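help with this record:
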Amino acid sequence: MGAGGVILRFMNLFVRVLQLCASAVILGIYSYFLAVLTDHKMHIATWMRAVEGMSGAACLYTLLGAVFTCCLGGIAFFAGVAVVLDVAFVGVMIAIAVLTRDGTQQCTGNVNTPLGSGDANAKAQGYGKGGFGIGSGKETTYFPKLSFACRLEKAVFAVSIIGIFLFLIGILFQIGLARHHKREKRFGPSPANGYTAGTRRPFWRRNKAAPPAAEGADSLPGHPTPGEVENGKYGYGNSAYSNGRY
């Protein structure tokens, strides 16, 4: 693979890592929300489970995508599958942004968060003594104030918007890597490059004439033409051959 292919693969891997980080941030925050609600025996909305599931799927896909980029990056079939999945996860990130649209609000005054609604500085419904329960003393997760929950929701919304663009960029890199791989297969390796690289030669070198073969022990001697024999260039002129004796 030429230098262009190495750069494309590295950049694609870098984008995959960024996608993984964005998905992991969303998964981590909503895992915390679900753990708090479960531990404090509060209702969990279906849309919250959906965000958790979609972000988990995005994490798994981007992790596998990073591995496949290193091993199979550019192969037409896998690139095509990756493009389809990237388009799907663009939709996933859009869905997460829509579901977490409360993250656009200011985290002051009255707020709506996955942990409840009310004044930003007020203690939430599940907030107990020390923040670890509602009186039973068995809860182990800290129930934050609504202002902190609001900031976490704002972070999820922002990361989901970034994730949309990251998956769009991933589509472009997959297409570019597949085209480069196809071009590599078309133009090499061949005797012209010593069977070592398949990168197409630069345009200023494509039409140059092949260098003359070097003379060596295996090269054949030159043969005289009839005109050269007639003129005696090879010592045959005015000889017995030219005088017709033979």
In short: Helices lie at 3-39, 46-72, 76-99, 146-186, 226-230. The longest helix spans residues 146-186.
